[in-house]
Amino acid sequence: MLLVKQLTGEYALKEPTLAPYRAKVQKMMAEFKTVSLSHTRRTANRHADALATLATKMPKEKREYNITVTNCPIPSALQSQLTEPPQQDWRSEILAQIKTQKEKGQLATKELSKYFVLYEELYRVEQDGILTRALSPIEAQHRLNEVHSQICGQATEIALYRRLQRLGYFWPTMKKEADDLQSHCANCMAPPQHSEACTVEEKEDWRRPYIEYLTNGAEPTSKSEASKLRKKAKRFQLHEGKLYRKSFGGEILRLELCGPKKKNMKPGQLSWIP
C-alpha cells in the first residue's frame, strides 16, 4: 500500500533506496496508454497465497543442476539507466560541480548540498526531506501536462505543484509553470459546487466531561486521563445542572460559552454570578 500511494502521489518518498525503483516504474508506465494501480489486501488475496503455498509443497523430480552465481554490483532493474546517454540541460552544470568538488575533496555549497547522484540520476532533497528526481526539460513538460490532466477540475485536491513534488519530480521552474498552468485553466479555477462547499461540524462542549463526572462519576477509559479529570474536577462545583468554578479568592464563578448577547466574551470565558 505504501508503494502504491507513493506512485500515485498520495504519499511522498523520503527513502533513497526506493527512489531509483520508483523512477524506473514511472518510466515504464509512460510506455502504456492507461495504467491502473491498486493495492490488494491480504484478506482478498487468499487464493493467490494458497496457490503459491501449494506450488512449494508439490513433489519435484530429483535432478542435478549446475548454477553459476554472479555478483552484480548494480541492481539489474537499474542497469538500463546507466546506458542512457546524458542529456545536456540545466542538470549538466550541477553534475559537473558535484564531480569537481568530489575530486578536489571540497565541501559542497549550501545550494549544491541539496543534490546527490544515485545510479547516474540526479536527485534533490527538499526542505521537508522529500526526495525528487531532477527532470530534463522534455520530460518535465510531459509530466506537467500529464499530472495536470489527471487532477484538472478537482478543486478539493492539493495544488499541481505539490502533486508533482509528491510524485518525485523537480526542475527549477516547476512551481512557476505549475501555478501558471492552473491559474489559466478554467476548470481548475472554477469555484466548487455549493453542495461540496457546505459542511456541518459539531464541536464538543469542553464542560461535558466534568458534568458527567460530578453527576454520576463517569471517567475516561485511560487511567492517566481519568487521573487528570479527578484532579481538575476538584476546582468545579455542580448546582442544578450548571457547572461552577471556585476562583482563587473563594468566589464562585459560572462557566458559560459565548452567546449573541455576550459579544465581548470568548468561548469558555468565566463570568460572575449575579
Automatic annotation (TrEMBL):
Residue ranges of domain RNase H type-1 in the record: 3-54
Residue runs in coiled coils: none
Pfam families: RVT_3
Superkingdom, taxonomy of origin: Eukaryota
Record-linked InterPro entries: RNaseH_domain, RNaseH_sf
A single GO molecular function term of this UniProt record: RNA-DNA hybrid ribonuclease activity
Protein name: RNase H type-1 domain-containing protein
Record lineage: Eukaryota, Viridiplantae, Streptophyta, Embryophyta, Tracheophyta
